[in-house]
Write a structure and sequence with these properties.
Number of helices: 16
Order of helices and strands: HEHEEHEHEHHEHEHEHEHEHEHEHEHHH
CATH topology of the largest domain: Rossmann fold
Number of domains: 2
Helix content: 40-55%
Mean pLDDT: 92
Number of strands: 13
CATH class of the largest domain: Alpha Beta
Low-confidence stretches: 1-12
Radius of gyration: 22 Å
Largest sheet: 7 strands, parallel
């Protein structure tokens, strides 16, 4: 369906691309989602991709894609989100596999994600082909986002790696404006293409799909649901959301906060936090749910919450929230304001009282909340459509091809 919808955008000449992704592929979470849809856009445009990735994740079948996995380090069964010592042996294995593949096959370009760009720029130079860096986040910023702010040496090392990757790439794809600013601070001359992660955020809900969800949660048709979907990592600002629900439930005792996501240990820890706030009966934890169930939860919701309070990347969930047509309550920080405005969301300061007031405002004026949600859906349909995503991907690849022609001409001269 994806290919037929975009076949008119495909070009006649295709590149054979070596892609390096230091993530479990495929898993239903941020960067793997983005990689999946980047590959779909590339293959829609007539390119072929050899993806070198971790030994974890679910295999996917896609015309034009071959997945090549590195060896699994001894005793390692999985890899979590964020910085980890486990990534050291994994990335070493990834580098060895990518080098072997690069030396035995012909490629027109190297396309690397996250810290895989460190491997990619070296291989691209050896192969004398252009390198495209797919920048999903700022690596040194991840150190603080995941609660390792005291490890300044790690932020320094990742900062050096990030600058090296930026300076040695011919084109950089960024997923938000803040990352474009980061790139400009390192090298103002490298071309950047902003491609928001809209397709990877998930499908829009179907009307009526939320009724079974409400029934399964023991909630009636008229019960207000404040919904959060996503990971339970430190940077998501969930403590702010829990604290904001205290004034919300005081004013609206019928309101319920439904939390979709989180590892089992994280959910248990969160249960303890809400009990301490006196919210044990007001917060419902579902645990992780399959990606194809999320649209039904969105349809069941009255209000959608994004309390993120650190970092600058736009949360992936925001684009699916926009598609849902439900009113969004989010913190008034760059992580959200790159995409959201007061016209299409209820924005609030990152304090429990302000966030709680915004939730109550959305619950208290259904007509205004519906108008906000309708405008949000219209923005998603026009600005963040699948067609726009593929067209922007074409722009990035066209710029990569131009840089290659310029470099070849320079060598010949």
């Amino acid at each position: 369906m994806y290919r037929s919808r975009f076949s008119r955008l495909a070009g006649p000449d295709g590149m054979h691309i070596l892609m390096i992704a230091p993530e479990p592929f495929f898993e239903p979470r941020g960067t793997p989602f983005s990689e999946f849809h980047r590959i779909r856009a590339l293959t829609t445009l007539g390119h072929t991709v050899d993806l070198v990735t971790y030994p974890f994740g679910r295999d996917v079948t896609m015309p034009g894609l071959q997945i090549i996995r590195c060896i699994r380090p001894l005793f390692m069964r999985r890899i979590g989100i964020g910085p980890s010592w486990k990534k050291v042996p994994l990335d070493a294995a990834l580098a060895l596999t990518a080098t072997r593949v690069a030396c035995t096959r012909h490629y027109d370009a190297v396309h690397s994600h996250e810290e895989g760009g460190g491997i990619g720029v070296i291989l691209a130079r050896l192969l004398r082909v252009p390198h495209l860096y797919d920048m999903h986040s700022s690596l040194p910023q991840q150190v603080a986002n995941f609660g390792y702010g005291e490890r300044t040496w790690l932020a320094t090392a990742l900062g050096w790696l990030e600058r090296m990757m930026i300076r040695n790439s011919k084109v950089i794809i960024v997923i938000c404006q803040a990352l474009e600013t980061t790139v400009r601070g390192v090298d103002a001359g490298v071309p950047t293409v902003l491609i928001e992660n809209a397709p990877g955020s998930g499908a829009a809900p179907k009307s009526g799909a939320g009724a079974p969800i409400r029934a399964s949660l023991g909630l009636g048709e008229g019960d207000p649901i404040v919904l959060y979907t996503g990971t339970f990592e430190n940077y998501q600002g969930l403590d702010l959301l829990y604290a904001a629900m205290v004034p919300v439930t005081t004013a609206r005792p019928d309101a319920r906060l439904v939390m979709v996501g989180g590892e089992p240990a994280q959910v248990e820890e969160a249960r303890g936090r809400v009990r301490a706030l006196g919210l044990a009966t007001a917060v419902i934890f579902t645990g992780q749910r399959p990606a194809d169930e999320i649209p039904a939860y969105l349809d069941a919701a009255t209000v959608l919450a994004s309390p993120r309070s650190t970092g600058t990347n736009t949360p992936l969930k925001i684009y699916q929230y926009l598609r849902s047509g439900r009113p969004i309550v989010a913190t008034r920080l760059l992580t959200h304001t790159q995409v959201l405005s007061d016209d299409i969301a209820f924005l609030a300061d990152a304090t429990p009282d302000a966030f709680g007031d915004a939730i109550l405002a959305a619950l208290g004026d259904p007509v205004h909340a519906m108008a906000i949600g309708d405008r949000a859906r219209q923005v998603a349909t026009t600005r963040y459509s699948d067609e726009a995503f593929v067209a922007k991907t074409r722009t990035a690849i066209d710029e990569l091809a131009r840089s290659d022609r310029r470099e070849v001409a320079g060598r010949l001269a």
